[in-house]
Amino acid sequence: MTDKAAGGTGGEAAKAGAAKGAGGAKGPEELRRQIEQTRGELGDTVAELAGKTDVRGRAQARAADLKDKAGAMTVQLRSSAVQAGHVLQDRATRAGHVVQDRATHAGHAAQERATHAGHTVQDKATHAGHTVHDKATHAGHAVEHGLPRPVRTVVQTGLRHPRPVLIAGAVVGAAVAAEILRRRHSGHH
C-alpha cells in the first residue's frame, strides 16, 4: 500500500517506521523490535480503516445513541408530565377549597337570614296571638256582662270547675249523636 492509498494516518506511521528503519537496525534484536512496532502500528491503522468502512456498525452505534437520547427524553417528559399533574392537582384542590369556603359562607348567610325571618314570623305570630287573646277576653267580658245574672253564675261556675262541664258536654254530644243515628236508621227502613 502506498502513502496516498493509506489516507494519511496509516501512511504517516509507515513513514515514521521507514525513517527509523533507514537508520538501520543495530542487530537482530533491534530489527525484531522494529518489526513488532511496525506490526502494531499497521494493526492500529487497519483497525482505524476498518472502523471508518464499517457503515453498519457506525449506524448501529448512532441508532443506540439516539435510542438512549430518546429514552432520556421520555423520562424527562414523564417527569415533566407528573410535575404538571401535581401542579394542576394543587390548583384544583385550592379552587375546590375556595368554592367550599364560598359555599359555607353562603350557607351561613342563608341560615342567618332564615333564622332572622323565623324570628320575625314568630314575633308577628306572638303579637297576633296576644291580639286575639285580648280581643277574646274583651269579647268574653262583654258577653259575660251582657248575660242575665243567673246565666252568668252558671258560666262562672263552669269556668271554675271545667271537668264537670266537659263531662256534661260529652254526655249531651253523645245523646245528640245517638239521636242523629236513630233518625238516619229509621229513615232508611
From TrEMBL:
InterPro entries, A to Z: DUF3618
Biased composition (Low complexity): 1-19
Record Pfam families: DUF3618 (PF12277)
Organism domain of life: Bacteria
Region annotation Disordered: where it falls in the sequence: 1-31
Protein name: Circumsporozoite protein
Source organism: Streptomyces regalis
